[in-house]
Predict the structure.
Amino acid sequence: MNIILIGMNHKTAPLEIRERLSLSCWTDLNPLSELMKFPQVKEAMYLSTCNRVEVLADTTVAETALANLKSFIFHHGNLSPEEMERCLYVHFDKDAVQHLFRVTASLDSLVMGEPQILGQVKDAYHRAVENNATGMILNKVLHHAFRVAKRVRTETAIANNAVSVSFAAVELAKKIFGSLEGKAVLLIGAGEMSELAARHLINHGVGRFLIANRTYSRALEMADAFQGTAVEFSDLANKLGEADIVIASTGATGYVITREMVAKSLQGRRNRLLFLIDIAVPRDIDPEAGEIDNVFLYNIDDLQEVVDDNIRSRRQEAERAEAIIEEEVIKCRVWMNSLTVVPTIVSIREKVEGIIKGELEKSASWMKNLRDEEKNNVETLANSIVNKIIHDPITSLKEESQDNGVTPYLVAVRRLFKLDQN
Amino acid sequence: MDILFFKIALATYFLSTVGYVISLLVKRVLVARVSMWVLFSAFFVQSLSFGARCIATGQSPILGIHDALSLIAWIMTGAYLAFQLKTKTRILGSFVSPAAFLLMIIASIGIGEHVSIPPALQGSLVPLHVILAVTGEAFFALASCAGAMYLVQDSLIKNKKGRSFSRLLPSLRDLDRINHICLLGGFPLLTLGILVGSIWARTAWGSHWQWDPKQIWTLAAWCLYALLLHQRLAIGWRGHKAAWFSLLAFFFLLLCVVVNQFSTTLHRFV
């Protein structure tokens, strides 16, 4: 068992190089069948996302397999040798497992904690299974990786807080209104960010959209898109009373919403809470409006600060996640080490079983006088003596495999039992 | 038996309070979730204590001021546990549980003492008066817990500070609703309690009103609650101002207890 992980990600390789590699795969060829053609590759998985291209393989001979894997990347990515050296990273065994765990748990992602990567790794694994490219090792390691990702997700808050401005606005709205169901949103002005925020709000069950724009026809257009009602710009002061959340993003130079407008609207709305989001530069909403009771005003800088804060707290959570991964890698290594002694244990058992069988056959001539019951007793006796004798060496071998110094024991046992002859 | 249950309940309230404080410190809702179950068991054991008392004495378990405080803790906890089934307000327990624990500590000072009831207070209306008034007060206590947390959350969101803390606290709407519902429930109970008390006062002392300090302060608090309820229902007060006002009114209710201890009053009977 020699696990190799080779690949490049957003940190090591620019997009154009990753693009070349991921484009050539799956469109005109099946990377898994290519990989499995290499005689040293026993199992393989090919993972390609917008931020990374990676090959995970279990191989018989690490050195030659690595050369083959490199040539695979080299050919399909059309890379120059210098680019290869610069962009490519290679991990073996325990490090490969650790890298896989970090990727699956979204610690290696561009946006740390983003949830898509787990699904992408799962897809890559299913493709490998469909192509019969996986076996005992990759099955075990990948299922372990999925478990680790789940553990990280539940035990740390790495994916908890919004890391985009529009999502941060939705989270704040939830802290104010509890549920957003049935709430009315007033969109003032159009813009990419306000539309994005509006879409997030729709996903969280916002009930009604009012849309105001300087050009009424544009308001009508957007009203169509969001299934809302278009509002005359001059009627803004009145409509403020109907809204719970206001998103302002006009190109106006002065304040579109003044303190007086907000104060007046509160009477009409019986002091219902009002959340004002001002993502326009220069600002659309008079900052003094935020001082009124039951009114909460956030501008683009405030929201950006929330996001920066969240990114910082994600980094802190990432440290806890790394500790979890460390722990799980150790668990996986124990299993991997025990695998290295398994073939030897099997050989010892086969050898002694062969000896018992041979000796019983030799004794068949005098044993034929015995009754069946006595024959069985002799066989049981022989088996149990031999099993007792090999029990301790096998247990010790398993125990030693949990440490790193397994190799000298393995070599000694194989020589003592002459397992490598014939 | 009831004293043993009371002591267990007291210890369990202490545990849940510690749990809630830890959940605030480590900023994890999970800890609060566990504390909620501890709080529930405290509530349950306290119910057993009341039940055992009823069976043992064959009369209302609420006799002295200590029993009244313990009843406030019990109702407050029970009402909170019911609320948090419907709303995501697990962290509100970190205000409710210490308050209940504090009440239980004060209640425990007089535990086991024989309460001698003056003849003037021996009548079937008295336990009813106490239970109604105390239940109303328990609701107001819960309203002020929600109000206090509302003010914390409100200022955190408004001033854009303490985000990790704000994330932990319940939403403003949930806190405001608990404040509102407790007010709606507590007010009629306190009103009825006062009415029953004054009817009894008429039979015992010949007049509905004795200018007793406790009566005066309770009436003042009652007026504030009446005003708050009116403003909430008719004018549409909510949120920040309503939360402040419910704290103010509760402060007057607390004054009643203090006044009760330091003045000559008919209401003192322990």
Remarks:
- Residues 124 and 131 of chain B are 12 Å apart (CA to CA).
- Chain B has a mean pLDDT of 86.
- The two ends of chain B are 22 Å apart (CA to CA).
- Residues 2-191 of chain B form one domain.
